[in-house]
Amino acid sequence: MHPVSSSGHLNGGNGQMNAMAKPPVGAAQFTAAMGLAATGVSVVTTDGPLGRFGLTVSAVSSVSAEPPLVLCCINRKSPAVAAVEGNGVFAVNLLSAAHRAYAETFAGRPREGRPFDFSNHDWRDGELGLPLVSDATAIFECEVHDQLDAGTHRIFIGRVVAAHSGAADPLVYCNRAFARIVHHEGN
C-alpha cells in the first residue's frame, strides 16, 4: 500500500525510490500491454461555474459500496480536470454498445459534427444538473469526494448521490478497438 503525501501525490512510503527497486517498464510497453485489457467505455460529464465538459474515459472503477464511491482517471492536460475540480461534481455515463458515436465525439474523433459537442446526442439533466446520456447502460452522479495526481492523470473519487441502471449491454474497448459483449448459450 502506498500512502498519499500531504500534496495528494502517491509516494512509496518515504517519497524516494528504493535503491533495490527495478526501474519501471517503458510507456510504450506498458500501454501495449494495458491495451489488451478489455474495459467499459464511459463519458464523464460535468457542468457548473467552470462550464460543461464531457470526455471519453476507460479508467473507471468502483471504490466502495459503503459509502458508495467510484473513481475516474483523467489526463491532467485535459481542460476537463479543471472543470471537474471547480464544478465539484461529475457523472460517469457507462455507454451501451449503441453509443459508439458518443465515445468517438468525446474522445475528440467524431464521424459527424464537432469534437466534444453535446448538441449531436441525446442528453437529459440529472439530479445534480449534469448532462446524462439518456439511455446509458449505467450512470453514476457524483460529488467530488477526493482527488489526487498519479503520473500523467488526476484520479477523481466521487461520492455517488444517484445511480441509474439500464438493460443494454455495455460498449467495450480492447486492443485499440470498440467491441460489444457476445453472449453464448450454455457452458
UniProtKB/TrEMBL annotation:
InterPro entries from the xrefs? Flavin_Rdtase-like_dom (IPR002563), NADH-dep_flavin_reductase (IPR050268), Split_barrel_FMN-bd (IPR012349)
- Which keywords appear in this protein's UniProt record, sorted alphabetically? Oxidoreductase
| Example of a GO MF term | riboflavin reductase (NADPH) activity
Per the UniProt record, the source organism is Aestuariivirga litoralis
Q: Which residues form the Flavin reductase like domain?
A: 34-180
Gene3D superfamilies membership = Electron Transport, Fmn-binding Protein, Chain A (2.30.110.10)
SMART domains for the chain: Flavin_Reduct
Report what the protein is called.
Flavin reductase
Q: Does the keyword S-adenosyl-L-methionine apply?
A: no
